[in-house]
Design goal:
Two copies of one chain form a homodimer. Chain A has 269 residues and is of the alpha+beta class. Chain A has helices spanning 2-5, 11-20, 31-38, 42-54, 70-76, 80-100, 142-149, 153-161, 175-188, 234-247, 261-267; strands at residues 58-60, 66-68, 103-110, 113-121, 135-137, 191-194, 201-209, 215-224. The longest helix of chain A has 21 residues, at 80-100. The radius of gyration of chain A is 20 Å and the shape is globular.
């Protein structure tokens, strides 16, 4: 948990450490696990946890284990993307889902990672490792490439300066390749991630613009890589992204250049 | 904010008060508004808010106003219903959405209120006042009636003992009527809320059972009241609720009695 590195010694910091101790792979923790993960004495952990439970920020199961509570979830649902972005996007995500019956995702940028805000998945959709509230690195996902392509220069340089985690043989592996791909994405107005996270999955992403025309989010469709021509998905994904942008109040003058299909495809192989 | 009534004087309590100061009608607050809503001195509020911002629990806009932060939302997405319930339900909610193109909702019980966990809405769906993360009283909504019908006796008595808020002329107004409706819901395995929140909207709800066969959530479809026969929706809503229950590991032996249409309908008028 990145925040632990700069944990303040204050009570506020300890409260947030207790909340941050819960992760997607460990959403349920015992008191001693909480204590271990936060580095707080058992007695302090017990006192903090009890107070958090009394307020609904945490909840305690019958077996005495702790989970994140409903009250905290309600408060968190007020986060900007949780409210306006998600509400505005949902109908368009629905349309996109009905057109594909695969995975439709909405994501925002946070540092060098994308955070998934919403995902619609069919019962027979290709499995994806992303989950709502989960993160993936920007360089390996279509939404990430779209968001990074439109991110401030300093954010792009941060990512380009770091080692690029390799998920498959098709994951973008060098800063040079990433720079070229980002230029393509900016020129074409969409990104394709073909087997970069899992060889079986392919995703096509496009940018969502806010009222000031800056890119505030990205959407993507994730389909089986086998036998899918990504470019058949591009018009639908771009149309949905534009619809959401319009719903958010983006300038109608927003125009994206035409596809340059052959080039993109090559730039990913 | 119900928790303010019993606010502990501790720092933990103050931190939660700051987070709880944000509401659906006021998701963006200035420092002085935060101070006023929490009853904390401006200096204390400033210190707490700054630390919460430094950890991503809150975020500060360019204009200096505060919102709930992305980090808190990520942590909160680990709440039980956020993870397993929502993931298991989504494909079935999608099917229900495609069958109706209206509003499809997933809700859980919290005291005398329902909390909406998920909602899928078409662009042309009837407007509903509920929102994800929002609450409505149990007696006026189909999901609420389903959840209350299967809630512990003490929870039912709490609700029956309170004044029942009247939204429209069709809102259940007396404890006697509510008792009768809850009995119907238990017998039939579904609930109909016809114009009880807004005269223009009608909803049909059914129960979602967990591994131990207890009712853990409810789903509903909200459609325009005008020209809709609620009973055409009952089979689809019940089938989806059963599908989700099965996905959650509910016993397959779960059987719900046949509809008793005329009786229910009368019990709501």
């Amino acid at each position: 948990m990145r925040h632990n590195a700069r944990r303040p010694p204050s009570v506020v910091g300890r409260v947030l450490d207790v909340l941050g101790a819960f992760t997607s792979d460990r959403p349920v923790l015992t008191l001693s696990e909480l204590s271990r993960r936060t580095g707080l004495p058992l007695s302090t952990t017990h006192r903090l946890a009890a107070e958090l439970v009394s307020r609904g920020a945490l909840q305690r199961d019958g077996d005495g284990q702790f989970r994140v509570g409903l009250w905290l979830w309600e408060v968190a649902s007020l986060a900007p993307h949780g409210a306006q972005l998600r509400e505005s996007a949902m109908p368009f995500l629905e349309d996109l889902y009905e057109a594909t019956h695969q995975n439709v995702q909405l994501a925002v940028l946070d540092g060098a990672e994308v955070v998934y805000i919403e995902r619609l998945s069919g019962r027979h959709a290709v499995n994806v490792i992303s989950r709502v509230g989960g993160r993936l690195p920007v360089h390996a996902t279509a939404v990430g490439l779209v968001l990074l392509a439109h991110a401030p220069a300093d954010v792009q340089e941060q990512v380009l300066a770091r080692p690029l985690k390799r998920y498959t043989g098709r994951t973008i592996a060098s800063p040079e390749q990433l720079r070229r791909v980002l230029a393509d994405v900016r020129q074409q107005g969409y990104a394709v991630s073909d087997g970069q996270i899992e060889l079986v999955a392919l995703s096509v992403g496009a940018a969502v613009h806010g009222p000031d025309d800056t890119v505030v989010a990205a959407i993507s469709v994730v389909v089986p890589a086998q036998g899918t021509d990504p470019f058949t998905l591009v018009p639908a994904v771009r149309a949905s992204a534009r619809g959401i942008s319009r719903a958010l109040g983006a300038p109608r003058t927003l125009r994206l250049p035409e596809d340059v299909r052959r080039e993109t495809h090559q730039s990913f192989h």
